[in-house]
Amino acid sequence: MRKFQQDGLVYYKFDNFDNAALDHAIFSRAGGSSQGSYASLNLGGTNGDDPDAVLANHEKLFKVFGRPYSSRFDVWQVHGKTILFGDAPRPPERKHPPADGIFTDKSEVTLIMRFADCVPLVFHDPVRKVVGIVHAGWQGTLLRIGAEAVREIHQRYGSLASDLQVGIGPSICGKCYQVGKEVRQQFLKAWGADAAQFFATTDKGLYLDLWGANEWALRQAGVARIENSRFCTAEKLDEWYSYRKEKGITGRFAVVIALK
């Protein structure tokens, strides 16, 4: 990934995405208005932060991104596998619909999702001109939400898995993400013996590799071009929010993408 800085904000871009065809950025936590545990570019509006600071953060992010704030399409992330399609921006008076994947083929729509340990899966279909973001916590990973997205955009837009480019954004790594035995049992039940490779046991407990699990599910769905940022949110609190490391009192960073 490549690092950029503008107006105090720090953001990253995937190397394998065509910047002539789309705008995209993964914004770090730097350069915003939020204070305390939410410092400083918190984009989450339901975690206890000052609403005025969150709004100021959104407005600054969209200014740096070069898109009007009114162009946004976002959802209420619920750890499921529902995929929605943004054919127009979400009006501010309309409630966030529940979903964990959003896609569009409309250049006037800017997609945005928020993260703090869960895996951002960022999609681009350069052939059908489609972009999207998927939110994959352990529940979404278990449900193979990345593969579900591949199926949904094939049905909606005709996108082929072989054409897709996918980026795996900053999220908690397999060395930091400790889980209970019941999580492994659910994966083994749903995925069979293939699930075992994504779990590791140390003297401290059981750990799940969300990066590896999501990449495996995407490749099983036919996606070949995958770029992993390999940025661990729990190891880099100066750049990212981590729900696990910060014990739930923290902000959310943003992933944004739009077609040109």
Structure in a nutshell:
Helices cover 21% and strands 27% of the residues.
Q: What's the story with the biggest beta sheet?
A: 6 strands, mixed
Number of domains: 1
User: In oligomeric terms, what are we looking at?
Assistant: single chain
Widest sheet, order of strands? 1-2-3-15-7-4
Number of helices, where a helix is a run of at least 4 consecutive DSSP H or I residues: 5
CATH architecture tag: 4-Layer Sandwich
Summing up helix and strand content along with how strands pair, one would put the structural category as: alpha+beta
| Spans of at least 5 consecutive residues with low confidence | none
Any overview of this molecule?
There is one protein chain. This protein is of the alpha+beta class and 260 residues long. The protein has one domain (2-172, 228-259): 4-Layer Sandwich (CNF1/YfiH-like putative cysteine hydrolases). The chain is built from 5 helices and 15 strands. The protein has a 6-stranded mixed β-sheet with strand order 1-2-3-15-7-4. A 6-stranded mixed β-sheet has the order 5-6-9-8-10-14. Strands 11-13-12 form a 3-stranded antiparallel β-sheet. Helix 3 (145-157) runs parallel beside helix 5 (210-220). The two termini are 20 Å apart. The relative contact order is 0.19.
